[in-house]
Amino acid sequence: MTVFIPDFRGARVRPSPNHGERAGGRLPDMILLHYTGMPSEEGALEWLCRPESQVSSHYFIHEDGRIVQLVPESRRAWHAGKSTWAGESDVNSMSIGIEIANPGHPAGLPPFTDEQIEAVVELCRDCGKRWNIAPERVLAHSDVAPVRKVDPGENFPWERLNAAGVGHWVAPVPISGGRFFQKGDCGRPVEALQSMLSLYGYDIEISGQYSEATEGVVAAFQRHFRPGRVDGIADSSTIETLHRLLAALPKYA
């Protein structure tokens, strides 16, 4: 692919050949954040630009905060894989993908740099304004692909992004005792939990059975919104945090 004019004025362009048309002329209305999960940031960037990798993202953020654009925002980058949100399964067609250089869980979740987070905020603000992206549509890869993906991880500072005007967040309810639900449980309370997670956007079967898949979705929710403990168990802190997030959505507020 030839060089193009960057959509974000602060980005350097390094074209990736891995992209296509957005299905049905869909415009992006979601921002999806990833970590690279590779030891070397240059190796990760190179991989996203190689035809044989069959993966890409719209943007790549170096550890020092430099922003590279690989795919024009008008095109469908290949970053989400098999993913679903709010009943839609072609997440690539409706999203802008941002890869943040960080080796992730395999390296023990090293912190993201201040420069990276500042760059993420600036980029998300810019994309959000240009495409009118709602705060609750700034999501983690793990949100749209529970179990399969865990990035950008429980150490990603979502609260800091929200304080800067990016993303949807409420303060997590403190972890305490009380009743909880876990894998193997069943009944109306489990069905109610699954329904709330589905209302927020997670891909989950409303069966009343606390299955392995339900455990994975709960863990994904915790990883983003209640990162103090990520265990897939729906304790009172997890459930009440979910209640508050739903109440804070514009359609329910």
Tell me about this structure.
Helices cover 30% and strands 11% of the residues. It is of the alpha/beta class and 253 residues long. The strands form 2 sheets. Strands 1-5-4-7-3-8 form a 6-stranded mixed sheet. α5 (188-200) crosses α7.
Radius of gyration: 18 Å
- In whole angstroms, the N-to-C terminal distance is 45 Å
Question: Quaternary status of these chains?
Answer: single chain
How many strand segments?
8
Q: Could you say which overall geometry the principal axes of the C-alpha atoms support?
A: globular
Structural descriptors:
single chain, 6-stranded mixed sheet, 7 helices, 253 residues, alpha/beta, 11% strand
Topology:
Elements: E1 12-13, E2 19-20, E3 30-35, H1 41-48, E4 59-61, E5 67-69, E6 76-77, E7 95-100, H2 114-131, E8 138-140, H3 141-144, H4 158-163, H5 188-200, H6 212-225, H7 236-248
Parallel strand pairs: 1-5, 3-7, 3-8, 4-7
Antiparallel strand pairs: 2-6, 4-5
Helix pairs in contact: 5-7
Summarize the structure.
The chain is α/β, with parallel strands linked by helices. It contains seven helices and eight strands. The chain has helices spanning 41-48, 114-131, 141-144, 158-163, 188-200, 212-225, 236-248; strands spanning 12-13, 19-20, 30-35, 59-61, 67-69, 76-77, 95-100, 138-140.
